[in-house]
């Protein structure tokens, strides 16, 4: 079995269409599918709903799709310092469904597990719970949240074999494995492709059954979103 494709553009061929929902992995600038996002932009598809922890940073990641006005709705947990995201939301140009971060992760996991709804205490009594059913369990109120699923998941991993089994590196794992399970089609860009049988099965983070296409990354910038330093102590 060989799920590899020659280029990011080839890996997305035939998958993109107007009005689709895309899950995009990453947390801040760690684990972003930075080679696949530019190809979505080049394809010119619009009216996109994008599910991602955040929308990149100025000039990087999903910011590219905001800048080209291809995204009409974001389902996220962090707006952060993305000024373009903020401007488009405040102007009414961009719809935002804001989630507590753990709730977002669990909604994606539920989508992959086939669980249409679950209850959580997070958000009870806040705007997060507006319009959602609230029930009481053992004397405590819980708000009902629903699953998230997508037409396409674009994710980034460290290594893959030709069958699509994935390994992630440290914090770049973040939302990527859950998203791989919750979309109709999953495309993974990776830094290295190895022969089938290379991985110890216990070291596989995402089994290939969840991955449809694999491609070598063409962009691996690994940017530092916010560098924090301190003066060197006198010695």
Automatic annotation (TrEMBL):
Keyword Membrane among record annotations = no
Gene3D superfamilies named in the record:
Glutaconate Coenzyme A-transferase
Entry-linked InterPro entries: 3-oxoacid_CoA-transf_A, CoA_trans_fam_I, NagB/RpiA_transferase-like
Molecular functions (GO terms): CoA-transferase activity
- Source organism superkingdom: Bacteria
Which key words are in the record? Transferase
Q: Give the matching Pfam families.
A: CoA_trans
Name of the molecule in the record: 3-oxoacid CoA-transferase subunit A
